[in-house]
Design brief:
Low-confidence stretches: none
Largest sheet: 7 strands, mixed
Number of domains: 1
Number of strands: 13
Number of helices: 10
Distance between the termini: 40 Å
CATH topology: Rossmann fold
Strand content: 25-35%
Mean pLDDT: 94
Strand order of the largest sheet: 6-5-4-7-8-13-10
Shape: globular
């Protein structure tokens, strides 16, 4: 049994109320003060590492080599956003997976962090010692080293988000930028879906943010939030039922994914922007 959080991990108040029980065996809770939504069970970093080593390579849609160009649409949009704000410099991608974002950032000095996995092996093959296999906390970057730190589809996986932000601030240069991309729990789609929102998949996702809770987390860690935007994505048609199945491989929705995966229809590209994905940029104050 995991110990339960009695205070909000962001605003630290004790006004919490459970939203959904027994979601993959976990409790989804909302802070009544700042409205952060989070997994109430206190999951440890070693447990997360064990989980990702066991299941981290099983995301068939993400691992599909044909999906890389879909991912790159977002990455190129983000690159343009960054380069209109600051000159190119030294960049760290925390949770870099196989290094797909780093691949589109040519002209930058590129670093990445990834947990031990097949993804880390792929990134290390391309970027050598610039890839730290482990966590941000066990890395040894000097203070004021990076111009940009990115956490793309990473921040909602972290067990201790404020501690991570504070370490990001330490290794960023004065005026350096931090970029966070996560699911938006306050979008209309999430509100209508309730506990069936496709991103509520503990223990993979431990936190569920909105623009306001991201702003609060950044400010408590010494950043000023300067940008909050919704960048759309391209995805294959088959990805829709795959995500909606939420790892349940026994239901009708997953069977629909399998049928599409075996058909040319599955690779039809669909543009999505339901404001279910939010990207924010903070600046080291």
């Amino acid at each position: 049994m995991h110990p339960l959080k009695t205070r909000c991990p962001i605003c630290e108040r004790d006004r919490v109320s459970d939203l959904y029980s027994n979601v993959n065996g976990y409790t989804i809770t909302r802070c009544l003060s700042c409205r952060l939504v989070f997994v109430r069970e206190d999951v440890t970093v070693p447990e997360l590492i064990e989980y990702y080593q066991q299941f981290g390579a099983s995301d068939f849609v993400y691992a599909d080599p044909e999906n890389i160009e879909n991912l790159n649409y977002y990455f190129r949009k983000l690159r343009t956003l960054l380069e209109t704000r600051r000159p190119r410099g030294r960049l760290l991608d925390v949770g870099c997976s196989a290094g797909y974002f780093l691949d589109v950032m040519d002209g930058w000095e590129r670093y990445g962090i990834e947990l031990p996995s097949v993804w880390a092996d792929m990134a290390h093959k391309n970027y050598g010692s610039n890839i730290h296999v482990g966590t941000l906390e066990d890395s040894s970057y000097p203070a004021d080293f990076f111009d940009v730190v990115t956490l793309l589809d990473t921040f909602d996986h972290l067990a201790a988000p404020l501690e991570t932000l504070k370490e990001c601030r330490r290794i960023l240069k004065p005026g350096g930028q931090i970029v966070i991309k996560v699911h938006n729990i306050e979008c209309l789609y999430a509100r209508v879906s309730g506990r069936r929102f496709y991103a509520i998949i503990p223990p993979a996702h431990l936190f569920y943010y909105s623009k306001d809770t991201l702003k609060l987390a950044l400010e408590k860690s010494g950043f000023a939030m300067e940008v909050a935007t919704f960048i759309g994505h391209w995805l294959f048609l088959k990805t829709i039922p795959y995500r909606l199945a939420r790892s349940n491989q026994h239901g009708l929705i997953y069977k629909t994914y399998k049928l599409l995966d075996q058909s040319p229809l599955g690779n039809i590209k669909v543009y999505k922007n339901l404001h279910d994905i939010i990207t924010v940029i903070g600046v080291k104050a």
